[in-house]
Amino acid sequence: MSSVLNSVAALGALFLQFVSALGVFALLLAKILARTTAILKRPRLIAAQVHFLGNHSLAIILVAGLFVGLVLGLQGYYTLRRYGSEQALGVLVALALVRELGPVIAALLFAGRAGTSLTAEIGLMKAGEQLSALETMAVDPIARVLGPRFFGGLIAVPLLAALFSAVGVLGGWLVGVALIGVDAGAFWSQMSDGVDFWNDIVNGVIKSAVFGLAVTHVALVQGYESKPTPDGVARATTLTVVAGSLAVLGLDFVLTALMFGDT
Amino acid sequence: MGPMTRQANSQSNVVAFRDLSFGYGDRRVIDRVSFEIQAGQVVALMGGSGVGKTTLLRLISGLVVPQQGHVEVFGACLNPKDQQALFDVRRRMGLLFQFGALFTDLTCFENVAFPLREHTTLSESMIQDLVMLKLECVGLRGAAMLKPAEISGGMARRVALARAIALDPELILYDEPFAGLDPISLGVTANLIRQLNSALGASSVVVTHDVTETFAIADRVMVFAPSPTGAQLIAQGTPQELRESRDPFVRQFLDGEVDGPVRFHYPAPPIGKALGLGGNP
Questions:
Q1: Cα distance from B58 to chain A (closest Cα, Å)?
Q2: What interface predicted TM-score (ipTM) does this complex get?
Q3: For the segment A43-55, what is each residue's pLDDT rounded down to a tens digit?
């Protein structure tokens, strides 16, 4: 009996923990957004973060995009051939990438590559009292440290997703057209007919912007709220990947249901 | 307790604690402490390790909020809710952290330039000159282009001092400036604190447990002692007055005696019981 009660209590505690984590998440988001004007007044700091976060993730994004495109080209070709519609390979590869794989995989890779470095950086700044030092110098660490990183991530992730999709399409072309010999004209023309600018591309960009916000903010919250010890920073870095990835996948389902439901 | 020579003129106070208590969670750290620090003086806050001295500095800079009572800085009560007012006060003070808290991704030069870049619109050549002057003050102009990881802990603290005085503060707070320094650096740092105080026309608050160096440079010393309800201010006065004090805690602290009001052991059950020896229960 008591073990049942214990597990119910543990479940409740877990739920409360989740809700309070959500509260911390929302509170810090509100604090950053409240400082938007102050943050946007210093575009150089944001540009530096876009460069730092984006540049560091570029290699992994491009290589991953290429391989995903190659695999999509192969698998797509095998499946489409059964129905005699290999010419649709272009549109299949492009839609899969632009609507789903580009935003999702780019955000997941970003969480692992740049998100962890954000969390560790902020956690170590906290451990080294650098955030306190900022405060005593009358510099707001939320506006000066978190803000530019937040907007940097928000800008970098859609750009990375776009590059991921672009390289992926090239990968699909490489396998389908250059290697297997699908008609190049059909490949490109079906793609340009089948991919709608607003429905597919803009929705994909919106998705990746939302993912960018989620992943970057999870990383910042984890760093900012981490215990300033080696153990605390290690935990926070791990949680960034776990929570960030789950947030991306969960949000992807919600956004897909909202965006593509009616067509 | 040494004789009190407190002046009633509140205009000349840079810092005043009014019946202030503070704790982390359930643990009370500061217990109903009141004192004033006069402008232009070098004041030392002394006490054993873990007595809450650093917390006193954090209270003065508004990094933590008292649970009871309040802190006045520059004649105005610190209001933790009003960030702008808090920042206006902090712009007039410099805090030297125990381990420097330098920005590890910036060079020493950029660390010292940081407050200037954040709070002023000075030209690059002006910043260059000011930073070099501040680094010259602490004797580290030659280390300007090194990263904090490339210099020693003592040097890092001197760079942090240059950063703390970059904006010519009216109040400089030092957190354990003497901890872990070799004898030469110790003397250099002590003189630096004294000289900066007069050169900048500032007031200084030094948190420390180093008796010799502190008594050589401080105008006034406040001694804090632990109690079950948190640290209490038990004596204050000039170094001379404290040397003549008969208070048992002050005597133990100044003379470094093992036995006295402060015990060596953290509170614990008797050792016999912990080892399971039984004896007399």
A1: 9
A2: 0.82
A3: 999 999 999 999 9
